Amino acid sequence: MTKAPEPSPIPTAIRERRQRVQSAETGMAVLKGLAHLGGRSSLTALSAHVAESPAKVHRYLASLMEEGLVLQDAVSQHYYLGTEAIQIGLAAMRQADPIRAAEPSLIRLRESLEVTCFVAVMGNKGPTIVRFEEPGLPVTVNVRAGSVMSMLWSATGRAFLGLLDESRVLALAEQELAVSPEDMRATLDAKDPIGQLRREVQEARCASVKDTYLRGISAVAAPVYDYAGRVCAVLTALGATGGFDPAIDGPIATAVRQEARAASAILGHGDGRGA
Amino acid sequence: MTKAPEPSPIPTAIRERRQRVQSAETGMAVLKGLAHLGGRSSLTALSAHVAESPAKVHRYLASLMEEGLVLQDAVSQHYYLGTEAIQIGLAAMRQADPIRAAEPSLIRLRESLEVTCFVAVMGNKGPTIVRFEEPGLPVTVNVRAGSVMSMLWSATGRAFLGLLDESRVLALAEQELAVSPEDMRATLDAKDPIGQLRREVQEARCASVKDTYLRGISAVAAPVYDYAGRVCAVLTALGATGGFDPAIDGPIATAVRQEARAASAILGHGDGRGA
């Protein structure tokens, strides 16, 4: 790792700036600009987008073409992103990690709402907690990192059930339903217990439970999507029923949904870019 | 469009070089290097890969981080591709066009083998020719750009049938089989006509026909894959039976497969990078 050569009186911001490379940053801004414009643009539109002169942008495009990141259409003269840009994206997608992406969200939920919260992914046994955060005065629950949650009775499981369209998810829910006590089955729709549950989750874009999975515990859970629009994780907040509002339009559910969207954005889900 | 300011005695190569931006190219080389290493690397390994000093690469990485393309893992200190790199890849994928990607392959096949060749995609009516190339002395065939080919009896259709796993592809083949004359059905496996055909194509990674679809015409067809590993087009060469070798290990099939791979590489399929 290189270090700043020696202690210096130059302010940090300027020193850091000097350690970077201005033209490389302009080149990256041109590359990002082309992506923000949908991957294809005229020189005029791209120059306007990055707020540089066409002559300057043209030189940077020549460099991007030299490196195989950009091609020029012979007919329209438009520039568009090429194969090397696909390869960079594919490599970046391989690095996209829902656990890492959701970590700042867990911290913010813990700090702002003082709730226990966690990230779960679909493991081979079911929804599995992979990252767990507790506030200073935690509520006592018997789940932790590594715990496999109920597909049917936990908010986490229901978020996967409603929004992750995979046959094994449905199969797990049906297995659980078959062995559930009568009083719990009675809380679900009589005709189409799983289908109705899924529709509710799909409509609310989150799942909420009160005392169904852990006695005295309520929870809300929202999906984290990857670049391909697939649910790759679920973000859940929980607390003691009574002190915790599990309403799907309440402040906790709103915050959990918002943080799940933030984690999804880090994973490349949705453009979310101003046109 | 900017132009070179005036006629100049400087050789073109040097003039073009001056119109580019060296540091932007180095920045792109660092970005591509990180992608080639799987999207994550130590400074040491990345510096070795791009053959630049760690101090220099570190400065470029600072710029890539500034632009949101690269992140640094706080624990391992490794650098990895971030959200902006995913967005660039997604935009590039939207631009990836199998017809444009296969065009150089069509020209090369026409020139080197003097065969009629074309690119087809799955249209809503079936495999549809979208780009058609003929040699100087073409064989007369009644297909052209816009023609919809048989799913079951053309080499093009069989390549889709064997390698594109979509229910509508299978449905089209079954419809055609139901209305095929007995003598043509007799050329297929008696017990599992479509299943056996698919397995043959899957094994050969190409499809070959002789007189089945157009009398007196033989053809070989190979799949073009996109970045997601899905068959997005089929590349086909055809000629008059007798003067055209449709053997799946013959020189024409070998060339068609090779050109289909070249077109797939342009679309981001497979890494194909030396480790």
UniProtKB/TrEMBL annotation, chains A, B:
GO terms for molecular function: DNA binding; DNA-binding transcription factor activity. The gene is allR2. Residues 21-83 form the HTH iclR-type domain. Keywords: DNA-binding, Transcription, Transcription regulation. This is HTH-type transcriptional repressor AllR. GO terms for biological process: negative regulation of DNA-templated transcription. Residues 84-269 form the IclR-ED domain. The keyword DNA-binding applies. Pfam families: HTH_IclR, IclR_C.
